[in-house]
Amino acid sequence: MDKVCSIARAVGVLLAIVAVFTNIPYAATILILLGAIAALNNAPEDSTRVYMITIVLFLIAKSVAVVPTAGATLAAIFTNLDMALIGASLVSVVLGLYARLRADWMPGAAA
Question: pLDDT (tens digit, 9 = 90+) per residue, 68-81?
Answer without folding.
Answer: 889 999 999 999 99
